[in-house]
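Lab notebook, bench 4. Continuing the backlog of folding jobs that were queued last week. Each job is logged with the same field layout so the records can be merged later without manual cleanup. Today's entry covers YdhG-like domain-containing protein, a 121-residue chain. Filled in by technician R.K.

JOB TYPE: sequence-to-structure
TARGET: YdhG-like domain-containing protein
LENGTH: 121
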Amino acid sequence: MNSAKPTTMQEYFAEFPAEVQQLLERIRASIKAAVPEATETIGYGIPTFKLNGKNLVHFGAFKNHIGFYPTPDGIKEFEQELSQYQNAKGSVQFPLSEPFPMDLILRMTEFRKKKLLEKVK
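JOB STATUS: finished
OUTPUT FIELD FOLLOWS
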């Protein structure tokens, strides 16, 4: 295993089995479709999208789940829909054993974009 920390999303994705890589690519594509002007980076060791230099969302793969990090306001806004998942102040865990809620990821990302753009005004 490569001990160097990934510096790109491709390097990060390459560390996981093929089916997880495909899911990570789908998440990435959804976020890019929702916020084409966002930039990709690795932040806190996981894939991160930034908008105007600010963190938009982060996501990462783990043994049994995909972690999605839409910040505390993103979790609060979708509290009811997220109640079926393990979540914390700024994160939610989507089990790999269940259908992946891509639509929810998309809506949380769009919400985060709206919040970041409101702060700029």
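OBSERVATION: The chain has one domain: 9-115.
SIGNED: R.K.
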